[in-house]
Design brief:
There is one protein chain. α1 crosses α2. Helix content is 44%, strand content 14%. It has helices at residues 2-12, 27-39, 70-80, 85-88, 91-110, 136-140, 165-179, and strands spanning 20-25, 43-49, 122-128, 150-155. It has a 4-stranded parallel sheet, sandwiched between helices. The two termini are 33 Å apart. By secondary structure, it is of the alpha/beta class. The longest helix has 20 residues, at 91-110.
Length: 181
Amino acid sequence: MGALVDDLLAGLAPLFDRPVAFFGHSMGARIALELARRHGDDVVHLFASGAPAPHLDRPSVGRSWTRLSNAELVEQLRAWGGTPPAIIDNAELMELALPVLRSDLSLIETYEGTVEPPLACDLTAFAGIDDHEVPVRDVGAWANYTRASFSLVEVEGDHFFVNDARGRETIFRAIVRSLVP
């Protein structure tokens, strides 16, 4: 995670001459948290979407997505439902995508999220009402990650509510309300 955040901060540096807000969905919420922590007090808002508060998201004993065979990982992708069948059924594309996916899953499995230090910026967390992977109460625990204001926005949909037009509209409206005076 540290190396990824270093690279992202270096790449985003030209944008840091103005107020900054970070948004991340699922694994991206953890990355956004670490970016906000490392960037410091210039961050005005963190938007965490579709992710349990990091201190709650500890892989349970026996759950290791990176240890699944390719066939098992493909079936897990089908079960999660966020990848279109046309992609999953394309063997050449999956051959290219699976190593990247394993790297992402490894990042999730090894990330040690902690509440400390809490952020000085406002924090909004988005939770899918029908997300069976990430319960709303676990998303609400992001409140522990800020010393400023916190809001929880429940969005219609499952874990992939960001892929739905209504979900995106709910997110965009909340972001605009939070950032535009």
